[in-house]
Amino acid sequence: MSDLFPKKGHDHDRCVHSALAQAEKVCDAENARFTDMRRKVFTLIWQSHKAVTAYELLDALTAEGQRVQPPTVYRALEFLTELGLVHRIESLNAYFGCDRPDCEHLGQYFICTDCGRVAEAVNEDMSNAVRKAARGVGFTIEATTVEIKGLCHDCATH
Amino acid sequence: MSDLFPKKGHDHDRCVHSALAQAEKVCDAENARFTDMRRKVFTLIWQSHKAVTAYELLDALTAEGQRVQPPTVYRALEFLTELGLVHRIESLNAYFGCDRPDCEHLGQYFICTDCGRVAEAVNEDMSNAVRKAARGVGFTIEATTVEIKGLCHDCATH
DNA sequence: CAGAAAATGATATATTATAACATTTCATCA
DNA sequence: TGATGAAATGTTATAATATATCATTTTCTG
Predict the structure, then answer these.
(1) CA-based, 20 to 30 A from B114: which of A68, A109, A140, B52?
(2) If you average pLDDT over every residue of chain A, what do you get?
(3) pLDDT in tens, A52-91
(4) CATH says B10-101 is which class?
């Protein structure tokens, strides 16, 4: 079993730095501006491996001394989402940083209902099953939402 | 190809009556009360093959002369959802009537972005792929959300 | 640097959902 | 059969999530 979820005590700064580096790369490639606000929001999203709501981000920005209104946060989220740097978790109305913003993928999200962490999988079996099912019913896929709630391995075993 | 979506001009009364009959059966089996309000909400949900928001239901009830507040609708939805008579479509914040309330299943939803219709699939390939992926990462499933947006066959070809 | 485009600020409001307490309805059994 | 408790619904208020619109600032480009 390969746990998708990060180990306890992992070096989270590394996650954040790597995510920032990837984000910069993607923005660069897309000729999109990774402005201060976008970087702040992105960094806040990466503060944990949980999904974060727009208003939690708003509060965090306020706590940092920024006086910011909802549209500002939602715009940053829209930007980040469109570039694939962040995914919206529909069943939580919350946002989650993407590990692999540089490749197209149908992501699948495991959401632990105990610790709240989220992990993204890019599982070809699942993707193919979805594509095949769609083909079977003559359906043209534009977007998919696959969210799986339950207990991560840590929470199930402790 | 077997289209999941109902044919144009199908006898929709039959859908509604069949759904009501199934709902009654399930409520009976569960010793749950299919009250007037619950039946009204359920019937309204089945007025189309689209997903319906709570406030659309509220408006429809108001139009019928009922003066109803949000909690009333949300309670009916909670009841129907818990019995599996209705599913929540997370990516639409809307509710959709279930065809197969009598058997446990991990449902998958195809949502046409053109005509707005929704169709539920119970595809074992998809379900198994999800279960297998979860097993592979030591994840214990509690609930799944699989929602596929795109064009239904009718809309793709017309 | 001027002008256009993009981003952010600010205000207001729409949409979705729930908390808390009051009242009514319904099943049951003494 | 009517008292009683549980379930359902009514009522009021408010929380949580999201967007529309117009003003201002920042950045890019020629």
Answers:
(1) A109
(2) 96
(3) 999 999 999 999 999 999 999 999 999 999 999 999 999 9
(4) mainly alpha
For strand C, give the nucleotides within 7 A of a protein CB.
Answer: 6-13, 15-20, 26-27
Contact A63, A51 (CB under 8 A): no
Rounded percentage of chain A residues whose pLDDT exceeds 70? 100
Residue ranges of chain B with per-residue pLDDT less than 50: none
CATH class of A108-157: alpha beta
The CATH topology of domain B104-158 is Dna Ligase; domain 1 (3.30.1490)
The verdict on a CB contact (< 8 Å) between B90 and A153 is no
**Residues A155, A110: Cα–Cα separation, whole Å:** 13
Find which nucleotide's C1' atom is closest to A39's CA: C7
A70 touches strand C (CB under 7 A): yes
Q: Does A128 touch chain B (CB under 8 A)?
A: yes
Q: Residue A96 — φ and ψ, nearest 5°?
A: -140, 135
Nearest one of B132, B145, B141, B130 to A152, comparing CA atoms: B141
